[in-house]
Every structure is written in C-alpha cells, then in structure tokens.
Amino acid sequence: MGLFVKLGLRRPIKWERPTVVDWVLDSPLQALVYHLYLLILWLRGNPVKPPRNKPPIKVVCLSDTHESIVQDVPAGDLLIHCGDTVNDGTAASIQKQIDWLVSLPHQHKVLVCGNHDSWFDINARAEEDTLGHKSVDTKTIHYLERRSVTLSFKGGRKLNIYGAPDLPQCGGPDNAFQYTLPQHPWSGTIPLDSDILVTHTPPKHHLDLSLGCPGLLQEIWRIKPRVHLFGHVHWGRGMQPVFWDDCQKFYEKVMSRPQRGPIRDMLPQAAWLDAFKVLYYGVLGLLWQRLMLGGSSNGSVMINAAMQHGTSGRLTKKPPITIEI
Question: Using CA atoms, how far apart are residues 30 and 35, in angstroms rounded to an integer?
C-alpha cells in the first residue's frame, strides 16, 4: 500500500470511487471530459417520461442487497432486482431473499441473478446445494436468464423486459455466469423490442467506475432500450440519461483511451480533439433540444440500482431508485 493510499489520497482498490488525486495522476483529460459530460447530461435532463394519455408505470429498482432487507421499499407497479441478492450463493440464503421480495405488494416482480447468487449457475453452485439437491422456488417472481417476458399493466400498457446475468470475470469459480472480455456473450442477443434491459453488470463507462463491459455497451448501442437497469459496482449507484448521439460517442471514445498521466495528457494529441467534440456535440444537442424540440428529447435512462453503501458491507441510507415510464 502506497503512501498516498495510507493518507487517504488515493483509493485502495478499483471498486472504490476515484479521488481527486487519482483523477489527476491517472488522466486529467479524462477527468475533465467525465465531469463535463455529467454537466451536459444534467442540463439535458431525463428523456424518459410516461405517455400523456396513458397511466404511468412506476418501476422500483433494487440490486446488491447481499442478504439485507431493505426497509420502506417504495410502492410501484414493477419491482426489479438486478442481482446479488446474497453473499454465500446458497439456495437457503437466496430463498430468504425471494420470500422477502414476494411479500412486497408490487404487481410484477423481475429478478436477474448476480455473480454472488451462485445457485442459479450450475457450474458455480455450492457443493452442499449440489449434493443435497437443494432448490429455489422463485414463486411469482419472473426470473430472467437470457430471456424476455412481456408484462401487462393498467390502461392496457405492456412492457417487454429482457434479463441476463452474465458479467465479466471478477472472482473465483464460485461466482456465477462469468466470462472473459474477449468472449463476451452479448453480440446480437438482446431482442430489438426490449423496453427494459436488466443485467447485473453495467456497460462500460456508465455508472461503472470503468469496470463495466464494453461488449454490453456495443450491444445496447444497437438496441437502445428505454431503460437499462444493473448493479454490481456499488459506488456507481445512480441514474444517468443517455442520448445515443455524437456527444456520447466521443465521451466513450475519450474514456476508452489508455490513461497517460498528467504530463503526457498535456502534450498535443488526438484525444484533445475528441474532448472538444464532447463539448461541441453536447452544446449542439442541448440547443436542438431546447430550441427545436421544446425541451423534450429522445433517449434512454441507465440506472445502477445498488443498495450497498459502496464497499462498506452496509445498506445505503438512500431509498431505492424509482422511475415512471
């Protein structure tokens, strides 16, 4: 552990939020673009809104509860859990979380498993569960493992929801549904008519501390779901609009570049032009939205629904994220 880490000036592990010193020493250019992009998104606002002539559907988002019971879960029409219900991955622990989720009053409930929910992956299942032929009863919950479900709501509304548990390798063989990045399973797998996409892993560069999957990012550019829910990276918790435009494209391009440090970042390079394009296309998109579209916009929302307070092992004091669509 280096001196800066001991002094609290640098993060000790990649699962923690980067400090100011981390940003400066790794890539001040990326730091500038990252915070500029967040400002542009804040100015543009949430592009996903319920239709005016039909009742809204309220979605309540959970992830990474890790055997904890979330108190005061908001009411809603659809409850979605993005995985890591437990820590030990056993059938008994998962069943307790299932029973809690079933007890909640939401009309529909959807679950995608996380890497710690080992029972769902036969290759990662605990020996005690395999030898004991232990099972999990998901009851009325729609468990999605690389499949879709169409759910009906009041006012004749319907939503197509696709869920998949796969994520980049992050641990030992007891972690479920892992893959190496070159062998990611996403290309051409998500149905085009998906309204809501539920995964455990984030896409790269969005609410992910740069730990998300680039293959998943490429796939959602093809699909452009209205809402993408995930978890896994606890400190990435939050909601972020995306507009599938040149501003986003050049933001992702800058953030994908190798980190060169403060000295090399100051030297003239192509990344400077890409950084300028983030600003240029961001302002252009904002003006088009305000002047030509009357403030409305087309886009999607990404939500990291993690309920853990970072890497503390405790639940956050913040309520579950909700969205009306």
Answer: 9
179-to-104, 189, 201, 207, 245 alpha-carbon distances in Å: 33, 15, 11, 20, 29
Instruction: Give the phi and the psi of residue 182 in degrees, each rounded to 5.
Output: -65, -20
Q: Give backbone dihedrals phi and psi of 82, rounded to 5 degrees, phi first.
A: -95, 15
Backbone dihedral angles phi then psi of residue 250, each to the nearest 5 degrees: -75, -30
3-state helix, strand, coil in the chain (%, to 5): 35, 20, 50
The answer to whether the CB of 53 falls within 8 A of the CB of 35 is no
Express each pLDDT in 52-111 by its tens digit: 999 999 999 999 999 999 999 999 999 999 999 999 999 999 999 999 999 999 999 999
Cβ burial of 188 (10 Å; 0-12, 13-18, 19+) is exposed
Sheet holding 58-62, edge to edge: 142-143, 108-111, 78-81, 58-62, 321-324
CA distance 108 to 106: 6
* Lookup: tokens for 66: 């890790």
Q: How far apart are CA 110 and CA 143, in angstroms?
A: 6
Q: What's the sign of the alpha-carbon dihedral 83, 86, 92, 96?
A: negative
What are the tens digits of pLDDT across the range 18-30?
999 999 999 999 9
pTM value surpassing 0.85: yes
From CA 66, how far away is CA 85, in angstroms rounded? 5
Looking at the chain, list the stretches that DSSP marks H as alpha helix, in order from N- to C-terminal side. Answer: 3-6, 20-26, 28-44, 91-103, 127-131, 214-223, 246-256, 261-266, 270-287
CA atoms of 226 and 241, how far apart (whole Å): 10
Position 275: which residue type? Answer: A
- Token pair of 167, please? 């994520």
